[in-house]
Design a protein that fits this description.
Elements lengths: L1 H55 L1 H8 L1 E7 L1 E2 L3 E3 L5 E2 L1 H13 L2 E7 L4 H6 L5 E6 L3 H4 L2 E8 L2 E7 L14 E5 L3 H9 L5 E5 L2 H9 L5 E5 H10 L5 E9 L2 E6 L3 H17 L1 H10 L9
Parallel strand pairs: 1-5, 1-6, 9-10, 9-11
Antiparallel strand pairs: 2-3, 3-4, 6-13, 7-13, 8-11, 8-12
């Protein structure tokens, strides 16, 4: 009887051992899963808080570090270009320096192109964008704007020999434009489907394509076109169609209300003091006129 009982108990002991081992494995796995989830949640929370703190304290960061990062163009004369001394210059560059001076901080100039200037602002690579930035509904969804600081309008330019009276006349014509620029987005809305818009990554390439005869027309800012016409009188280029009258605004990241308010104070004071008029006359040979807020 005793031998028989002992023999039958072996499977029972083994069964209990297997249950215990299985439970230990499951508990260990569960602990790992819970730990992973907790660490993930903590990481997300930390990133959220860090970004929130940055968003709420951008102006404080600028004043603490005594440095402001400002995006400027270097391929868009007379607003921004590289001079013979290999240093950036132009209306936008001087406006950036004026803001830094009034804030009492060092200015770090960050060259940008039309396609990446808004992303640079969204990803906190810069504090401000001063780069012939026009204000429209699409951009207002992702960034904020200060008051306007300079006049600007975009248009279509082409040879006198080519008759262009309305946007419908662009049908079948080739037009160069800088990708992501206001003239690109607005011309896309206004031009007929048969118009061929050739997009380039920067303003220099856009102008070069027209000068080289790769396209029949060019869509660009009036000041840029004026410089192009003066340098290439043999082209016989002239104004054709107004795309949009779009003054220049300074771009600010969403939520940076204190920084935007501070920059607006600088712009209003500069307007009253005649600084904006001086910059406009120096670089554009025209008055600022009425600038919108």
């Amino acid at each position: 009887m005793t031998a028989s009982f002992a023999t039958q108990g072996v499977p029972f002991v083994l069964f209990r051992s297997r249950i215990s081992t299985s439970m230990n494995i499951n508990l260990t796995h569960l602990k790992k899963v819970v730990s992973f989830v907790l660490f993930s949640l903590l990481g997300i929370t930390f990133q959220f808080l860090a970004s929130s703190v940055y968003a709420q304290n951008a102006l404080d960061n600028i004043q603490r570090t005594k440095t402001i990062k400002i995006a400027i163009p270097t391929d868009y004369p007379p607003y921004g270009f590289v001079g013979v001394d290999l240093q950036p210059q132009g209306l936008d560059v001087e406006m950036a320096q004026l803001i830094g001076q009034k804030l009492g901080v060092k200015v770090e100039l960050i060259p940008v192109s039309s396609p990446n200037r808004v992303p640079y602002l969204q990803t906190k690579k810069v504090d401000l964008v001063i780069s012939t930035l026009g204000r429209n509904a699409e951009r207002e969804k992702v960034i904020d704007f200060t008051h306007a600081y300079a006049p600007y309008y975009q248009a279509v330019f082409g040879p006198k020999s080519l008759s262009i009276k309305t946007f419908n006349d662009l049908s079948g014509k080739t037009i160069s434009a800088t990708r992501g620029s206001l003239e690109d987005t607005e011309l896309t809305k206004l031009a007929p489907a048969a118009a061929q818009i050739k997009r380039f990554e920067d303003s220099s390439s856009t102008i070069a394509a027209y000068v080289a005869g790769q396209v029949q027309l060019v869509a660009t800012g009036a000041s840029v076109a004026t410089a192009m016409i003066q340098k290439n009188p043999q082209l016989g280029a002239e104004f054709k169609l107004l795309i949009k009258d779009s003054p220049c605004f300074i771009g600010v990241a969403k939520g940076e209300d204190s920084l935007r308010a501070k920059v607006n104070e600088v712009i209003v004071a500069a307007h009253k003091a005649g600084d904006l008029e001086r910059l406009s006359q120096k670089w554009l040979a025209r008055s600022t006129g009425e600038l919108p807020e």
